[in-house]
Design brief:
By secondary structure, this protein is α/β, with parallel strands linked by helices. It is built from 14 helices and 13 strands. Strands 1, 2, 3, 4, 5, 6 and 7 form a 7-stranded parallel β-sheet that branches. Strands 10-9-8-11-12-13 form a 6-stranded parallel β-sheet, sandwiched between helices. Helix 4 packs parallel to helix 5 and helix 10 crosses helix 11. The relative contact order is 0.12.
């Protein structure tokens, strides 16, 4: 019991529990670190960020704060904060500026008391909004180590004045969490999973959002015409209304799946291909060698597809049927799909090695 009590306490901050990708990041941290360190309940969002100030979320946060207080009394105060926000610092999240100001205050008090702060691999920027930039700069300057997912985020951090020596580029570490293989994996060999995202509607101009929905509907029809079965995989609870709308407007019966995180990752690894608009759904697919078409609203998507050497699978526009069909053929037809699988698996091995190297550097800092 005494040995257990002496473990250094690490506080995870930033995950959104309604997002399967955030939950996979937390699970990766627990798998890699819980043997040597004590990780109390994460301090994160229990509802989508847009509902942060809602009574339900405030009530849940107070309950979790009480739980963490009990953990502090039992195990001691955290000595290190692990910020696993994913993507919360940048102009698209200006609505969270007040929330991030509270985080900045917490980090200032924590750092002033001698605690260490590590920003785990995440996307950052852009920072044209002065208020967003000011809060992000304050947080990043307090960090002892900053991991970003791609070079664009690194440049945004440098533009805020962060010392280059503190910044590293590392892949998203959710790739270390093993998938839960579906009960009947053969059923998925002829399915193409479509992972919609509300962000493609509320973070893009109005005309782009409507074009996106129409493009997904055309995807379903094309997949059916090839003798394959499209289905919808929900990767964030915010996407459930969009998934239902797509299901109701489909020209043929369309299944919707909303499994737990590891089971969702298993489905992404077992299906024929993925058409995805959620970052971690694409990470899950690509890291398991499943060809995927990506549709994104921020720089993090291009960085991900560059990392896996398959930029040709990223869609920037949805108003061209020829462009859409070309990408779909690339990920489902055998010859092109086989080449993609081979390339993705090679890149996945490299990403795993880089991720383990990131954890080694993190543990050196924690020692």
């Amino acid at each position: 019991m005494l040995g257990f009590m002496r473990r250094k306490v690490l506080q995870i901050v930033g995950p959104c529990w309604v997002n399967k990708g955030d939950r996979l990041m937390v699970e990766a941290l627990q798998q890699r670190l819980s043997g040597a360190y004590y990780l109390p309940m994460p301090a994160g969002l229990n509802t989508p960020a847009s509902k942060f100030w809602g009574p339900s979320n405030i009530g849940q946060m107070l309950g979790q704060a009480a739980c963490r207080l009990a953990q502090v009394l039992a195990h001691g105060k955290p000595e290190v904060i692990l910020d696993c926000s994913g993507y919360q610092f940048g102009d698209p999240w200006a609505a969270l500026a007040k929330v991030q100001s509270l985080r900045l205050l917490m980090y200032q008090l924590f750092s002033g008391a001698g605690g260490k702060i590590v920003m785990l691999p995440q996307s950052l920027g852009p920072f044209r909004d002065r208020r967003v930039a000011s809060v992000a700069a304050g947080i990043l300057h307090l960090a002892d180590l900053i991991f970003v997912r791609e070079s664009v985020s690194r440049q945004h951090a440098l533009d805020l004045g962060c010392p280059p020596a503190r910044i590293r580029i590392a892949p998203d570490y959710s790739i270390l969490v093993p998938p839960q293989v579906p009960d009947c994996p053969d059923e998925w060999a002829h399915r193409v999973c479509v992972v919609p995202s509300q962000r493609m509607i509320d973070k893009t101009p109005p005309e782009a959002g409507s074009t996106y929905v129409a493009a997904l509907q055309r995807c379903f029809d094309w997949i059916w015409d090839q003798g394959l079965e499209p289905c919808i995989l929900v990767h964030d609870t915010e996407d459930r209304p969009l998934a239902r709308s797509l299901q109701e407007s489909a020209t043929r019966p369309l299944k919707v799946f909303d499994p737990p995180p590891r089971k969702a990752k298993g489905i992404l690894g077992a299906c024929r291909a993925v058409v995805g608009s959620r970052y971690h759904a694409l990470v899950g697919a690509l890291s398991l060698g499943t060809p995927a078409i990506g549709t994104g609203w921020s720089h993090k998507y291009r960085g991900l597809f560059q990392d896996y050497s398959c930029e040709e699978c990223l869609i920037d526009r949805f108003d061209s049927d020829a462009d859409l069909v070309e990408r779909l053929r690339l990920v489902v037809e055998k010859s092109s799909r086989d080449r993609l699988v081979e390339k993705l698996l090679a890149e996945a091995r490299n990403h795993r090695a880089r991720t383990l190297s990131m954890f080694a550097e993190l543990q050196n800092l924690l020692a």
